[in-house]
Write a sequence for this structure.
């Protein structure tokens, strides 16, 4: 059934990373960052972008030292097998968490804007099953899918704000730099949830054809994510001001609702945006889903990963419906992103890096002796 | 790869079941043939005696209706009966040489083969050749004499263009291969003929240009054709379905066309063409989604028009796919997303309509499909009008009866027109079918349903491959250069290289000599000025 | 085997979905599209009187196909008493054969009693804010008196009250006599300043609706009204005037002649000066316009630049007067800063803002608001 040769290009991976990162986070990003950093949200986002790029390249670098192995394999060399197995399980679970949360948030937004009475379980299930259909085919269709959907996600997001240019009040970004450093840093931290996604670099390296181009590709990818986020925050805060933005749950949608489109059907745009946003979430979900399945497959050394796809659905479904309300969803995602994300993005690479250095030292010592 | 190796050396016919060795005696051969061809009253057996005293018995066997009677009468029989009287009277020598003499020097027909297998002989007779049997020799001479009635070359009915050749393929494979050769006079244009079909022994020609074509694709094509074991190949569609990769898919992975110019262009791009006897529809492989949207006219007209038309076709496909679904989604689920005035208008016109929007749409669409199907069966003049006009009239009547709303009729009409603008008939059918799927999804989940439909459809398309080429190329495995011939059509000056995705051997197909020429003139002039 | 399992799964899911029905499907003709909502307080109780107006779809249909206006009502207005706004729309379903749909609501009219009651107003605002059905581009307006009175009347100009109001707002540029605020801007202002805003005012005439002037909301409570001139002054101060006219008087034989200055361009800039704890807020206005009416006798005088200069001066004075009226209203009567001065300070002079932000309302009253206006007459019509 799967007649792909499981090789993808650096270009495709860069786009995949972009699509994975841009997901549920963009809706609440302006709100979160304005709450902490006030009118300087844009600077916080840029800073977060730099940090993400740094850590993404870090993870990439570590992966590149073991070109034919995924995280599951090389971590067992670096941090001893039992710990590696444990960390891999947590990693897989971590990715599944994001699938579930993204699906849940998607369901919540959909219920509010498009389908108020449809049970959220159905929305989540249909989303999960559709993703499962794709994930079963392996990595090639996944990157192709993200390649195709990429322009449909980016272009509408960029174009939809054009008519709003004259509604922007540049004064909304003042006062500049008059914010407490701690709050500012908190703002940076808060944007980490929106940058989650490049952890897939732990697992994807062996499948890439032209690896040398990957470094540049990731640079572009994360830079573009940052640009997109800055763009969104710029327009949202420009239209609403940072106080109002921080009070809204999903400022992006609110902004789109308020823009007056002189040419088009005034009401239509938010519906179309919701449709487009489905693609955004879809790309994030199937990416996380696939890598979770891949990690698990590597762990239990199964040849065909497609067997694992369906059994994961109940797990994700349950996680998705555990939180009672949108408030608890965000509470949990906040927890996950602060603790687990920091671990996987910051702490783990450092540990792995140190371990590599130590081993290199050992080897040299061994050779000398 | 093992598969390919097995067949690498045997690109031609598979081993037929072992034939029957012919006999020395004419009578025995004839008996065998007559027995096999018993009750075939259109087979003609002509005994000839040659030699000074007419003692050498020859026999001609052919099938009336398949042969060119003039060839047999004027050339074969004439030379045998009249000219053979020149044979020397020495019996033995002649006997030995008779065969040689006749075969090499007497028969003035063009195409001659020598075989000694009776079954093959019968097959040749059934294909329209004439068999010449000798008493005392087991060798049989097969004279090619095909000359049945065939439709003359006429404009292709399913693919009309405003500008371009008006020649279309006919049902005789030889005529078709000749047509292809008229476009490409390159010795590298190779035509491999295979016979497919246990009982039909249909001639199938695989055509490619050596040096351009991607050999992997070619190998797969030949392999798959060779693996066909079917009683009869009635039309190229059989072959198409048997060599396709994914027969579940609603999308054709093989392009079919009646036009030789399309085949020629495809060959020059590095694709493989398959001609089948008894049908004017040729197959082109590999096919991608974008090739279904290309019309030969795009290349003959100027690039701006072609680009706009191509974009229009893509949009039509989207409309044909989703228009009724969007109508259902917006009226039943999300009226808030339509402008207020339009919403009120729709609500107003739907007062009193007894069906929900979904049923209404379904009924109208199904009716329209019925009308369309009926229109094809009806004789020419009536059939054309029944289609759309009939649909609209029925729609109008339905509106006045209050069963459907006027907007629905417009949506259906627009959808229908949009689906007709897709150049490939097979693709248009797929879109029409999928439209119903989208309608069901829209009826269940509104706009979200349509999005789900897109995701499922895209997933399917993304996985689909046609002979090694991803179906959605060039959007997938992005190569900017290929966009220039899919979404838009770049001016011919920019189409210098063959499509990347086909991975052909020889990449360049055009050199802009004029530009170079102009540039060299410029350089010369500049040098002169410097002096 | 795999395929069989997949089919089973698919079958079960499809069956359960189809048999259950589609949850959100409501046919469009079964909806009542509410165009306008009116909210009042029910006297001597904690409840609201909510009035919904929606068009009569059948009437529209008859109108389009038969070509003649029937004598049926073009739209329906229904009132209901309920505890909250949204239980109102639910309860109405007991009386109505259609489902109310609020997505196309274009105007919400608040009765005076609602805005005078702080808690009630906050309740109303909150329910409007959280709603996902309501469009944020709708117009929130206040009426002195009861909203129900406005809603239950028939207006021949346009029976659809919501559309009527929206169309009037579209022309706000022409007069600048009321602020062109939609719900979005109002709620933003309320959020930013914790309870202060300007809401346009609507009154109903005999057969028509009139939107002019506005209500000042301070701390979620009505704090005063702005009449036409004060409103225009307010708009001058906040740089929102885009069109309209300023009428001034020229001396003529006998009575003074009223001359309109038809504005077509305004450029505003603001600055703040602080001296010894005294804040001066200076608004610089440059406006261009035409003179469209003078008096027939004085023909031939308009090409005289001296006369034009006088006219310009008079225009400037008029504008300054309007501004003063508005400023006074805000500083003295309502005692709330709706002019954006505090906002301006916060953005451009954050250090100054820090000094005063805690008791801004008092400080605001002593701010000296000055306007530097220069008017330029560009065109004078077709005659000299």
């Amino acid at each position: 059934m799967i007649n792909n040769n499981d090789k993808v290009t650096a270009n495709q991976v860069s786009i995949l990373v972009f699509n994975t990162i841009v997901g549920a986070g963009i809706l609440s990003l302006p709100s979160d960052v304005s709450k902490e950093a006030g009118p300087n949200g844009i600077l916080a986002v840029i800073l977060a972008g730099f940090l993400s790029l740094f850590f993404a390249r870090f993870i990439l670098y570590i992966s590149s030292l073991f070109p034919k192995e995924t995280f599951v394999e090389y971590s067992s060399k670096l941090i001893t097998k039992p710990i590696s197995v444990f960390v891999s399980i947590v990693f897989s679970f971590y990715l599944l968490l994001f699938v579930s949360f993204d699906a849940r948030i998607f369901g919540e937004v959909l219920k509010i804007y498009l389908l108020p009475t449809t049970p959220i379980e159905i929305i989540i299930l249909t989303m999960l099953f559709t993703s499962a259909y794709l994930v079963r085919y392996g990595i090639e269709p996944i990157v192709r899918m993200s390649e195709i959907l990429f322009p449909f996600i980016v272009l509408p997001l960029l174009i939809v704000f054009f008519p709003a240019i004259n509604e922007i009040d540049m004064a909304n970004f003042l006062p500049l730099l008059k914010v407490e450093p701690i709050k500012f840093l908190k703002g940076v931290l808060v944007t980490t949830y929106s940058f989650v996604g490049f952890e897939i670099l732990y697992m994807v390296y062996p499948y890439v054809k032209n690896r040398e181009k990957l470094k540049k590709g990731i640079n572009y990818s994360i830079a573009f994510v940052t640009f997109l986020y800055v763009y969104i925050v710029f327009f949202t805060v420009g239209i609403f001001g940072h106080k109002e933005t921080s009070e809204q749950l999903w400022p992006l949608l609110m902004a789109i609702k308020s823009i007056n489109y002189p040419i088009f059907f005034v009401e239509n745009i938010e519906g179309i945006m919701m449709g487009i946003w489905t693609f955004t979430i879809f790309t994030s979900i199937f990416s996380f889903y696939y890598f979770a399945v891949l990690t698990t497959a590597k762990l239990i050394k199964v040849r065909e990963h497609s067997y694992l796809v369906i059994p994961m659905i109940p797990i994700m479904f349950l996680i998705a419906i555990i939180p009672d309300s949108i408030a608890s969803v965000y509470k949990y995602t906040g927890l996950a992103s602060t603790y687990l994300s920091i671990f996987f993005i910051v702490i783990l690479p450092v540990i792995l890096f140190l371990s590599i250095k130590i081993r290199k030292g050992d080897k040299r010592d061994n050779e000398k002796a | 790869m093992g598969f390919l190796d097995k067949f690498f050396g045997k690109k031609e016919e598979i081993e037929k079941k072992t034939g029957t060795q012919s006999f020395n005696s004419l009578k025995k051969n004839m008996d065998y043939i007559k027995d096999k061809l018993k009750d075939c009253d259109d087979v003609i057996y002509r005994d000839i005696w040659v030699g000074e005293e007419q003692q050498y018995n020859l026999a001609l066997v052919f099938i009336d209706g398949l042969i060119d009677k003039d060839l047999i009468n004027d050339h074969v029989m004439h030379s045998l009966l009249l000219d053979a009287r020149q044979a020397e009277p020495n019996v033995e020598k002649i006997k030995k040489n008779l065969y040689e003499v006749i075969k090499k020097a007497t028969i003035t027909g063009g195409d001659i083969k020598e075989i000694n297998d009776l079954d093959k002989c019968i097959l040749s007779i059934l294909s329209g050749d004439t068999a010449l049997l000798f008493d005392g020799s087991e060798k049989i001479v097969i004279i090619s004499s095909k000359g049945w009635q065939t439709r003359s070359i006429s404009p292709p009915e399913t693919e009309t263009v405003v500008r371009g050749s008006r020649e279309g393929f006919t049902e005789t494979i030889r005529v078709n291969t000749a047509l292809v050769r008229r476009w490409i006079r390159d010795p590298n244009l190779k035509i491999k003929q295979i016979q497919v079909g246990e009982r039909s022994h249909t001639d199938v020609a695989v055509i490619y240009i050596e040096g351009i074509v991607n050999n992997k694709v070619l190998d797969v094509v030949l392999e798959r054709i060779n693996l066909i074991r079917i009683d009869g190949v009635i039309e190229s569609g059989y072959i198409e379905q048997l060599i396709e990769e994914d027969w579940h898919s609603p999308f054709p992975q093989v392009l079919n066309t009646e036009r030789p110019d399309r085949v020629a262009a495809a060959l020059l791009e590095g694709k493989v063409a398959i001609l089948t006897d008894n049908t004017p529809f040729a197959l082109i492989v590999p096919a991608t989604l974008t090739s279904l949207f290309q019309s030969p006219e795009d290349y003959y007209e100027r690039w701006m028009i072609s680009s706009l038309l191509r974009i229009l076709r893509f949009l039509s496909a989207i409309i044909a796919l989703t228009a009724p679904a969007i109508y259902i989604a917006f009226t039943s689920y999300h009226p808030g997303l339509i402008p207020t005035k339009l919403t009120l208008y729709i609500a107003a016109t739907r007062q009193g309509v007894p069906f929900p929007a979904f049923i209404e749409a379904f009924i109208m669409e199904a009716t329209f499909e019925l009308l369309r199907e009926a229109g094809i069966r009806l004789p020419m003049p009536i059939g054309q009008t029944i289609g759309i006009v009939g649909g609209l009239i029925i729609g109008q009547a339905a509106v006045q009866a209050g069963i459907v709303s006027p907007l629905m009729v417009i949506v259906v009409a627009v959808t229908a027109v949009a689906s007709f603008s897709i150049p490939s008939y097979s693709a248009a059918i797929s879109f029409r079918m999928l439209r119903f799927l989208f309608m069901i999804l829209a009826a269940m989940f509104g706009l979200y349903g349509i999005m789900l439909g897109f995701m499922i459809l895209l997933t399917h398309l993304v996985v689909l491959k046609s002979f090694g080429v991803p179906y959605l190329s060039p959007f997938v495995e992005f190569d900017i250069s290929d966009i220039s011939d899919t979404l838009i059509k770049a001016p011919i000056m920019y189409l210098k290289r063959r499509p990347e995705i086909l991975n052909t051997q020889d990449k360049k197909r055009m050199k802009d000599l004029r530009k170079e020429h102009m540039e060299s003139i410029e350089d010369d002039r500049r040098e002169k000025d410097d002096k | 085997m795999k395929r069989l399992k997949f089919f089973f799964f698919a079958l079960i899911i499809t069956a359960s979905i189809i048999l259950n029905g589609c949850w959100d499907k409501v046919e469009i003709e079964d909806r009542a599209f509410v165009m306008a909502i009116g909210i009042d307080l029910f006297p001597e109780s904690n409840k609201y009187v909510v009035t919904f107006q929606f068009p009569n779809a059948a009437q529209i249909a008859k109108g389009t196909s038969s070509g003649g206006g029937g004598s049926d009502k073009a739209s329906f207005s229904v009132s209901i008493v309920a505890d909250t706004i949204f239980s109102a729309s639910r309860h109405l379903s007991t009386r109505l054969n259609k489902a109310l749909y609020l997505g196309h609501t274009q105007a919400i009219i608040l009765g005076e009693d609602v805005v005078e009651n702080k808690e009630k107003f906050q309740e109303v605002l909150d329910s409007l804010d959280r709603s996902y059905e309501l469009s944020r581009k709708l117009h929130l307006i206040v009426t002195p008196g009861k909203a129900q009175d406005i809603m239950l009347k028939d207006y021949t100009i346009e029976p659809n009250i919501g559309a009527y109001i929206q169309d009037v707002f579209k022309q706000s540029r022409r007069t600048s006599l009321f602020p062109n605020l939609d719900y979005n801007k109002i709620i933003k202002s309320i959020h930013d300043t914790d309870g202060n805003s300007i809401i346009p005012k609507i009154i109903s005439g005999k057969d028509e609706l009139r939107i002019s002037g506005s209500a000042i909301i301070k701390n979620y409570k009505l704090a005063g009204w702005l009449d036409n001139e004060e409103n225009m002054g307010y708009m001058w101060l906040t740089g929102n005037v885009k069109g309209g006219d300023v009428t001034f008087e020229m001396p003529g034989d006998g009575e003074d002649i009223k001359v309109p200055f038809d504005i077509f361009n305004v450029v505003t800039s603001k600055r703040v000066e602080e001296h010894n704890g005294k804040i001066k807020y200076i608004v610089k206005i440059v406006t261009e316009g035409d003179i469209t009416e003078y008096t027939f006798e004085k023909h031939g005088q308009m090409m005289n630049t001296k006369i034009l200069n006088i006219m310009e001066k008079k225009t400037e004075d008029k504008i300054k007067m309007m501004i003063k009226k508005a400023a006074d209203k805000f500083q003295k009567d309502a005692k709330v800063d709706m002019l954006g001065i505090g906002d301006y300070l916060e953005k451009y002079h954050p250090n100054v803002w820090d000094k005063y932000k805690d008791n801004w309302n008092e400080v605001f009253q002593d701010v000296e608001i000055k306007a530097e206006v220069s008017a330029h007459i560009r065109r004078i019509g077709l005659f000299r």
